[in-house]
Amino acid sequence: MRVMSWTRCRGLDWSHSLFCLTLLLWTRSMSGLADFSDYLTRIITSHSAHACDGQPLRLHCPRHSTISIQSAFYGSGEVQLCGVDPHPSLRAHNHSCSAFTALQKLLSECQSHRDCQMPVNHLLFGKDPCPGTTKYLHVDYKCKPTEHKKHVVCEGETMVLRCKPPRVLNIYAAVYGRRLGHTDTCPSHLTRPPPFECLNHEAVHLVSKSCYSKQKCAVPVSNQTFRDPCFPGTRKYLSVIYSCVPQSLLRVADPNIVSLTSSPSVGTEKDLDEPFPKGSRRPDNSGAMMSNSLLTYAYIKEHPEMAALLFTSSVCVGLLLTLLAVSVRVTCRTHWFRDHRLAPKLGSPTVKYQEDDEDEDDDDTDEEEDDHEGTGRSLLSATERKAIYGWEEVTYVSEAAERAERIERREMIMQEIWMNAYLNGSSC
């Protein structure tokens, strides 16, 4: 009885330990999925940061992504982000002012970096645009993934960007002009390229307005579309960095794109349904399944350690659940067999007769079994008693036959022994 109780306690402790370990692994897996969701959100949506004079400004992107500056503003605007102005008269005179070098400064300091921190001071941007006025630096940026697409189109042509459904375009950077040293890109045989860079980084706003959250867009590359940053006669080009993201994921990250995606100009619902006829058996959510598969592949490729941890955790959880199920099954079967073995002991005296076949004290044994039989009968119903009585009669008949056969064998053995002893004595 003590051994059985100790086994039960150990079984409970082991099951509790398995449950705790399973819960720990499940929590770790959920945290990994939460990190994955946060990573996707940060590389899809736009971010903004601001800091007042004398405060540090920090821009940060997750792993496998870099900062892509969209816009920058330093000065004093209509929105008061830095509290009450100490000189309201000067603010009324300089209602809105800004430094035109803010974007170029942020591009030189933070572009293509994962983490960037810089103090906000008017000395960084040249001449103070608003002397004696509280100013601030406001930056809009995106986290550009390391794996992206790049498309370059020369001046005078039309840039066409497209993604396969159900994915849509997400623009990270767009520059119109000419970089220094890129003589092989859109060469001009009439004029030589300038010895300096002439770039228009504000082209990202026009490209994003035309292509963001769409499956296909066309942008003419010309000075009429973008501001000319170079000398007249310089041949320029448009360089765009973008990626194709699932439309459902982008809609969750940015709810404001619902009206943009429903625009009939590019990628209407009719155009999307044309590749699949009405009689097709293709499921409606196959695009979402494909996008989820692509996201899973991208995450595994960019986070091999986390993917390996999640896979190992899932395998361990499966094995622990299997062991728990097997242990519960074995325990239940053990209790079931034990209960069914104890039931005949309460209902019939055959066990005692089988154990004491060679015992000569039949009267004492019968009395003990009669006591047990009386106790068992009091716990049984009338129908069960009839069945037990019938079984006892058969048992008594079979036992009487067995005893007679054993007695006959004993007598035969005794006769053989006596005959052998007699023959040996007579021969001597």
TrEMBL record:
Comp. bias regions, Basic and acidic residues: 268-284
PANTHER family assigned: PROTEIN EVA-1
Residues annotated as signal peptide: 1-32
Key words of the record: Hemagglutinin, Lectin, Membrane, Repeat, Signal, Transmembrane, Transmembrane helix
Identification of the protein by name: SUEL-type lectin domain-containing protein
Gene3D superfamilies linked: 2.60.120.740
Region ranges (Disordered): 263-287, 348-378
Gene: EVA1C
Residues in SUEL-type lectin domain copies: 51-144, 153-245
